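Assess this one:

_____
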Amino acid sequence: MRDFRRIRRSFGRHHGFGLAMTALALVHGAPALAQDAAAPQQSAEAAPVDQIVVTGTRIVRDGFKSPTPLTVMTQEAIQNQSPTNNIADLINQMPALAGSTRPANSRLAISSGLAGINTMNLRNLGEVRTLVLLDGRRSVGSTITGLVDINTFPQALVKSVEIVTGGASAAYGSDAVAGVVNYVLDKKYEGFKVNADAGITDKGDGFNYSFNGAIGKSFADGRGHILLSGEYAHKDGIFEVDRDWNQLGYRTVANTAAAIAAGGPASLVVRGAGTWNTTPGGIIRSQVGGGTSLRATYFGQGGTPGVYQFGSLTDASQTVGGDWEMNDTSRRIGLDATDDRRGVFGRLSYQLADWIEVFGEASYNWNKTLFNSGPQATTFTLTADNPYLQQALGAAALTGVTSVTIGSSSADMPYRKNNSSREVQRYAIGAGGEFQMFGKKAVWDVYGQYGQTDTHELLRDIINTTRLAQATDAVYSPTGTIVCRSSLTNPTNGCIPLNRLGIGVADQAAVAWALGDPYRDQRFKQTTAGFNLSATPFATWAGDVSVAVGGEYRKEEVSGYVPTEYQSGWSVGNFRPTFGSYNVKEAYLETVVPLGLGAEFNGAVRATDYSTSGYVTTWKAGLTWQPIPDILLRGTRSRDIRAPNLNELFQSGTSRTNTFGTNASAYGQYAGATFRELTTGNLALDPEKADTLTLGGVLQPRFVPGLSISVDWFRTKVKDAIAQFYADDIAQRCNEGIQSFCAAIVRDPLGERDWYVTASPFNFAQVKVRGIDYAVNYTLPMDRLFNNGSSSSLTLNGTATNYLENLVDNGISVPVDTVGQNSGQSSTPDWIFRLSATFDTPTYSITAVGRGVSSGTYNNTYIVCTTACPVSTAANPTIDNNHVDGTFYTDLNFTAKIKVGGTDGQIFFNVTNLFDKDPILLPETGLSANSTYSDLLGRSFRVGVRFKTN
């Protein structure tokens, strides 16, 4: 009952979602008329009862309904509702998906190879725990963690997308802990079709366009079939933020010691605040010698010095009021990436006999992105003999001064860029068909597949820490010219002195000498082979018993190359090549047993042997009961696994740099300091084990034809979860006095950052996710309403997920439930919802979509108070305002259906974020918005045409 009590509490608390659920209630109360089985978007329960192939089970049998919840997005819905020319942007709107990596939220994934990809993350259990399939088969990963980039799928041929929410490892193997997302292709398409579209935001940026086409043709009296498709798409990047919502100075600042002592909170949420200790031309943070006379001296245009005016409240790095707008790190960051992709796909099949059809497939996809990964924010020290310092301040100002420490966002340097590219190839051959076994139809298939991804992870304009330090450390030579100090002892080292004090003062030759373009080339290879057989060997008094058996072999490999000069010494990147491989052998058995009285049992077991971690068994037991045609009850219990991926096993070392949080009570001596982190793999990892339970039902009342309502409760517990502590966690745990964590953080021996942190993954965590899915679908044919022979229809759909728990317990720190925390990718809103209404006629269609998330908190660990506050701790810091708004976006599509000769055509116009709603704002530096659950671009338009012949 606690889940339903929480639903009531969150429902009342989040009035934005109350509006959405009111709309769903109106759908329920619609006129009682028939349902159109071809609804643009529908739950699987609304699909025709003779549907044969169902993702989530290997059983192939007419009329079988899997006990695992399934949602289907049809081709019509994809065309009418997609906000962009990339199908992943639509699928990631579904409430069952939360926290997926997309180009908009991966700009800082500089060293991981994730920037620019589109992935799927069911239940926010982690993308590595969602299995993505293409036509029921695995696809080679686009990253070393095995994540599949949806950009590499032939979007012109996608017939539907099926989302299985619930453990499916017994049916599909490792990684299907949270479920499966299967992209189904129209393999027997006949005719020719072409699509073209272009779009832009109402701010005049983000221009994009795409072209795709497909041709399918049967031959040899229909026994053979050939299918070809191709696509090209481009999107302009948005590399600077000029949106007003990011210029509000919305920040979290530390309260004064006096106010805290008087019972005030440790942190305050404010507007009109900015970072004072980092300015475009540099600002003196501190000095050695001479007291504090130079502190807060900044350098402006042409190197002219000025005195920074602090505001009403100033902490170690931020100020409220005063010159808060001087800092430019909220403007010189990107909103969206430049994206180019192109791909081709081909398939040839031939029916050799009634019982066997052979096929071959080949595809090639190329994708390249370019993203602004932020300014070159650095902290550096100048000695008093630096010529540029002397020229800017004069000798008198430096009397008694030994050195100064300066913070700068480096306006004279180009911003960091991620310019990665990927090439993905897939080749498959196979055969399949139907034949009679035990007097019943049996279905079989066998296949072999090879996939290869080649990545070129290129970073551009990245600081070479040694060169920048040498160029910064300038002195006068004996002849009076300005040179690098290092050149006095090594005149041929090529160093060019760099003036970093001011805007428009840097020698661009010196900038070019200090920066570089490190890269890593990696190759991921996947070889798979498998067979499947589904048959009906016998029957009981209650009906036919169906059985599916099969096996699969899979090998995953990684290799790479990094030039020696790019393996260390850079502010980010510091790539190292990774080498390794593993293989897995699997066999499964699945059955469906009718129990009578409308009940069916569905069970599966899979034996899996990994070359790295040994043998493991997964299983599933499910039950459906349909006491009357109107009601279907269902439940599933499963044991699922996720084996460690190539990155977790073999990573040779990935480095990143960043800055610790500024909360002194949480970070202690590390607060606000910079760090360099190195992560390596662990060959001793075991597979994760997950237990999933789903309970739900479907209502399709005969007295309201066309209406389908489903509710499903789910819970997944993952034990021995593969996880690791990263730099922020390690610093906080060390500050708490746990010495084992202190051993992992030392002063940076290279001097590139303040601290050096080492990390590796282990099987130590437990993860628990709970929630409830809701779906309402209703189709109203106009002929039923007006009895006029009309073929028009109105289709209403609503889906929502109420997330109740998402908790990670690492066994050391106090577990924090991140549900209701709206602060970023790793957190999950209480409610995610999506509504759509489509009015379809023979000549046009109109679709409206409403989507959004509920309001929540910035951080669930905060204690909100304004007076008489408890003592602020690292586990439970105090703050005066912890509220983060939710959001509700409205999209609109109009499609006109035309005829050009004998060709069917469509002209369509989409408006995304019709009312230009702002994103979810967060009180933090940089991009002050939630880039995972928000629309960052504002109102945007897309227009296009589609033509096809049959």
The longest helix spans residues 15-28.
